TrEMBL record:
Domain of life (superkingdom): Bacteria
Sequence similarity: Belongs to the 4-toluene sulfonate uptake permease (TSUP) (TC 2.A.102) family.
Regions crossing the membrane: 12-37, 43-62, 74-93, 113-131, 151-174, 186-206, 213-233, 245-262
Main location: membrane
Entry keyword set: Cell membrane, Membrane, Transmembrane, Transmembrane helix
Protein name, entry field: Probable membrane transporter protein
Membrane topology type: Multi-pass membrane protein
Subcellular locations according to the entry: Cell membrane; Membrane
Pfam family, one: TauE
Length: 263
């Protein structure tokens, strides 16, 4: 095993630790680790990320369910339109994106660069949601119409399919503001959505990509180990401070990706 692989698996452990400590956000590290440390193609990296995120979120779902923090009914309502969008995105949209998105003079935007730039933009949005102070609001008790939930699920599912991350930072606000679920339960409920979306989205990739199952299963197992350790250490570390600090780290990573891809 070379140093690149070692750093990659350390990255997997870090991803799991973050997921276990703050309940989300770690999955957004998966693609950068696979692309910049392990040297994988962005298309393959986003596919592998969906599997890692899906299995890791499944573990997290069981942990949250034990504490009564998963609303399965609302989660499944969001999951249906979302997994349709994720699967369609991975099965049809991503493979149909041309290798050269556009070319103007000497400037060319390739498919790989476009995906990483879009990923970096989503990372910027995620970092802002982690850094800014959350205001507590009194929520109404009535739920929104299902057609709105369906439309919102399609949008978030498409983004999830493109970037290969779980989208927890998108689902949690959606569940709080649109489905009127308390924050703690929204975090747990988002995990069941992420689990279903990610694993079904990965099925779309299985039909178009050659999967290195040995590497993928080992990477995922290490990430799960990180989750177990993260849950243990979360008893002793302030999740609010950690989340804010991680937000700044994600912000720096996003700027790094944009700078690296455009230069």
């Amino acid at each position: 095993m070379d140093y690149t692989s070692i750093f990659g698996y350390v990255g997997a452990l870090l991803i799991g630790l973050v997921l276990g400590l703050i309940g989300g956000g770690g999955s957004i590290l998966t693609v950068p680790v696979m692309v910049y440390i392990l040297g994988l193609n962005p298309i393959v990296a986003t596919a592998y990320s969906l599997f890692v995120v899906g299995v890791s979120s499944l573990v997290g779902t069981f942990q949250k369910h034990k504490k009564g923090l998963v609303d399965f009914k609302t989660g499944l309502a969001f999951s249906f339109p979302s997994f349709l969008a994720v699967y369609a995105t991975r099965r049809y949209i991503v493979p149909s994106i041309p290798d050269t998105v556009f070319s103007i003079g000497s400037t060319t935007l390739t498919k790989d660069v476009a995906i990483m730039i879009f990923f970096a933009i989503i990372m910027l949005l995620a970092s802002v949601s982690m850094i800014k102070k959350q205001k507590s609001k009194t929520l109404k008790t009535e739920n929104q119409s299902y057609y709105k939930t369906f439309f919102q699920g399609l949008i978030i599912g498409t983004i999830t399919g493109l970037i290969g991350a779980g989208g927890g930072f998108l689902y949690v606000p959606a569940l709080v503001l649109w489905a009127r679920i308390p924050m703690k339960k929204a975090v747990g409920t988002s995990l069941i959505i992420i689990t279903i979306n990610s694993l079904i989205g990965f099925l779309g990739d299985v039909q178009t990509l050659e999967i290195d199952w040995v590497f993928l299963l080992l990477f995922t197992a290490i990430a799960i180990l990180g989750i177990v350790l993260g849950v243990f250490f979360s008893k002793y570390i302030s999740s609010k401070k950690l989340k804010k600090g991680f937000g700044f780290f994600i912000l720096i990573m996003a700027v790094y990706i944009i700078n690296k891809e455009l230069n």
